[in-house]
Amino acid sequence: MTVLPTAPVLDLPVHLSGDYTASLVHLVEAGRGGHVVTLNAEMAMLAQREARLARIIRNADLVVPDGAGVVWALQRVGRKIRRCAGIDLVEAAMGPLARRRTRVFLLGAAPGVAESVATLWRERYAGLVLCGWRDGFFGPEDTEALTDELRRCQSEVVLVGLGVPKQEYWIEQARQKLPDIVYVGVGGSFDIWAGTKERAPRWLRENYLEWLYRLYREPWRARRMLALPKFALAILKRGVRY
């Protein structure tokens, strides 16, 4: 895989790619494993407080600008880049990965959700090998069994929907035992794919307002959304030192 240039956002690297889908597919085809992070403002601010998360992001093989805030931070210093939402990245990659009969494991969400996604994707992406799935309700005592299952399934890609930062911490541990797998943190995407939750209308997504729709549908996110103005302030304080 060609090494992509990066640009920093609050000291976290964001890879600059004209085609993030191709970058993900190339990472899988290389066969050496890897970690894909979908970075948004909330995650970037959390990384300012949690050194472990910051280290994981810096060591990731592909960091894509998932959030509008990250895109804004890059654009204001002359980086012409568009948002690449993690859910869109994975959906776009499934076609090319299906053509090479990639083995994909789904991990996360409530019981039955990942299985529903597997059922839908078997019909939608002919050739894709959904080699296994498991919900996100497991503890440290299940780690060895889960690792054995991933190894037995010969998984090439694991989509991990455990939420931030839990999914990143789990991926870090999993890579120590199974480094040849490409792990992608997908947050709550399984619920969208399974149809248990609705995504924001396209016009909101295209205008970087998906966060507003999520706040409308899930008011409990209000406290977490405080990270957005804090992120903007942190970027403005740094001026153009990028």
If you had to describe this structure to a student in words, what would you say it looks like?
The chain contains 13 helices and 8 strands. The two termini are 26 Å apart. Helix 2 (41-49) packs across helix 3 (51-59) and helix 2 packs across helix 13 (227-237). Strand 5 (103-108), helix 6 and strand 6 (129-134) form a beta-alpha-beta unit. A 6-stranded parallel β-sheet has the order 4-3-8-7-5-6, sandwiched between helices. Strands 1-2 form a two-stranded antiparallel ribbon. The longest helix is centred in the middle third of the chain and has 14 residues, at 86-99. Helix content is 49%, strand content 16%. 38% of the residues are buried. The chain has a single domain (6-237), classed as 3-Layer(aba) Sandwich (Rossmann fold), CATH 3.40.50.10700. It has helices at 20-30, 41-49, 51-59, 68-75, 86-99, 113-124, 143-152, 166-177, 189-194, 202-206, 210-217, 222-225, 227-237; strands spanning 6-9, 12-15, 34-39, 62-65, 103-108, 129-134, 157-161, 182-185. It has 242 residues and is an alpha/beta fold. The mean pLDDT is 91. This is Glycosyl transferase, WecB/TagA/CpsF family. GO terms for molecular function: hexosyltransferase activity.
